[in-house]
Amino acid sequence: MLVFWQERLVLFAVPKTGTTAIEGFLAPRAAMILRNPPTIKHMQLTRYNRTINPLIENSGGEGFETLAVIREPVSWLSSWYRYRHREDLIGHANSTRGITFDHFVTEYLNDKPLPYAKVGKQASYVFDGDGKRETTLLSRYENQDGLIEFLEQRLNMRITLPRLNISPEIETSLSPEIEARFRRERPLEFEAWEMAL
Length: 197
Description:
Blueprint: E1 2-4, E2 9-11, H1 19-26, E3 32-33, H2 38-41, H3 45-50, H4 52-58, E4 65-70, H5 73-83, H6 101-108, E5 137-140, H7 144-155, H8 176-185, H9 187-195
Parallel strand pairs: 2-4, 4-5
Antiparallel strand pairs: 1-2, 1-3
């Protein structure tokens, strides 16, 4: 998470949406960098509202906007699946080796998924506990040019991003039945992406 004080902008670090590269490039420009541990770096909306936002407001910060990058939900899960398919995770509880993408998504939909499918929800960066949208700005991962253009204008700087945390290229097709279940059981995931520009 990055906080840009002068520009009144908070950038959430939504996993698997390219924000690691953005944060790496923009960190020297930020007033506040929340990088470690990962639970702080990837702080979701409810915790931000409980901890960081009051700190900002009590320090005289007004009119801050929040920005989250949201990826198409099936693509987002595909990226997680492929990322956890890496060689260095073989034998680890987070490894997706030997597991189909259908099985991974099915496990993700469980109330208490196994470690390899415990990846959180993008919607938790957008909506409060009652399903009300609170994040001000949403950008689609698939619209990197639009995101960069917005950040360049808002921060008044040129941005050239490296590619980081690239997932291995493997086949990930989801059966229509599992995709329909995903859409039915996690509608806020799709709603968040549809709201993004």
